[in-house]
Amino acid sequence: MSDTSSPHRISILPDHLIDQIAAGEVIERPASVVKELIENALDAGATQIDVEIEDAGAGLIRVVDNGCGMSPDDMAFSVLRHATSKISHLDDLSTLITFGFRGEALASIAAVSHLELVSRHRDQDAATLMFWEGGTKTEQRELGAAVGTAATVRHLFFNTPARREFMRAAATETKHLIETVTDFACVQPSAGFSLSIDGRPTILVAPAGSMRDRLADLYGASLTAMLLEFKGGDAELSVRGFAGKPELSRANRDRILTFVNNRRVTALSVAHAATAAYGETIPRGRFPFAVVCIDINPHKVDVNVHPTKREVRFTRDRGVYDLTYYTINKTVFSSTQTAPVMHVKVPEADVHAQSAWLPFGTTPTRDQLPGGIVPQSREAPAQSDEIVPPHGAVSEASSLTTGPPAEPGETAPPGPSVPQRAARPVIADGVSNLWQFRDLYIVAEVGDELWVIDQHTAHERVLFEEILLRAQKRAPETQRLLFPESIDLAAGEWQAYESAVEILTSLGFEVRPFGDRTVLLEGVPTGLRVRNPVILFRRILEDIEIAQRAGGDLTKAAAASAACRSAVMSGDRLKLEEMQALFARLMATDNPFSCPHGRPTMVKIPIIDFDKKFCRA
Question: Which of the pair, 21 or 534, is modelled with greater confidence?
């Protein structure tokens, strides 16, 4: 005989509790309400959507649209759970092009608020008002109103105080509300949007002719001018959008906006691809500004994997990743990595300087330019066994790949070399007045700009590309050590050495096994300024280990490491011809604006900035 008094007896939950629990899956915060109501408005064909917020959404949320509206019968059904006009069979999920389809939005909102709907269908003469309190309909009557729907939500979570307690500070909730409206406005330029918060207009954008125009309305013309438009793919899968220039990089991913079939989603693989596409143009830990729109056959994407429809699943996830990477990578490197051609007159008697000036757009060879720049210091540098890279120049494997890097848990496929950049514009006035500041920065007058160049990162970029170029041509050049170095390796170092021995050889290292976990280093790539070959080799193996764990390009990781630890350092005084040679070689690289780790090599200051400071403009 069962114990009917047991507190663990199974029972059926009442309908109102079921609705409140279900609402918690869909309505996480006030921004969730706005998202669902805007989606309904867009599905109704609205071309103007107005949002009004009070008390960070806890007091009032009102969304008014000029869509097709609803009849009284449809209004009554719309607040019932799983009532929808979007699907009737399971197969319909694979062809969805609408935002809403679950039939849970209005039901979930009504369950945890006071909901008022006023709607007039375009075929009706009058509008209908219906009111629900905690999911229970309490009022219905006719009134006059324009075609469309106005949804008003008051006292959100009034009957679920625990969930109300989990709401963040008003400033945080308001931030999410603004981001939600901005996201929709961004990808729906044909519709006008407005957002009013506590009676203050916050967003007001009219229908725009293009996404670029809409971005200018939302983010300002100056930022939009720094966005590069990209597009690629085919009818089954395409990607389009805008990628910000590297200068717009941010400390977080919150401005990598991802849309799939115009639906704002969270897709970490797409965000990872967009970030990786910038390669070494932005430092590790920084993220680009990017609007990425994936247009894909509905059969190839599952939008039914999360109650809020915030996440999606692709049948060709790697294909989406690769297309995003290659399209953005090509755009960034062809459009932003440009440098001027410098026409500098060199005294004919200065043979050393003359040999340094090559036709720009070509990469100097060893015969044409000295491989390393030997600095003239104020005093003899102290001998040290340790070469410490400058602050921020730590090798990071994730920014060293040319093909799309592997997503977490994957192995990176082989990728092509860095895309060729666009032709450099010519500056007729050339460069003059080259000098060194604090034995760290090279300052040059270039046309109407003052360029300040970091001598370490500039030399690092030069050495990096020269080493890689020789590796790609399978023509490594080695400078043999006067005394070979025997190096005992730790287990991890030995593993890195074994996995990258061919790569090291292709770069110009001459090294061979010399006993149990011991190698004999007999030569290093030509052009490197090596103070301590043993320290250099160990640091390169360390960076190779990091690249292996991240699925990065081992060749680029090794080349970047060698370049960083062999470049001129802060405090190294350069002669004029050495600065000229470094400047020329930097301008001949594929990416003269950043070192292999994403640090900038130069800052350009236009004369207009000086004129403004001195009240001349």
Answer: 534
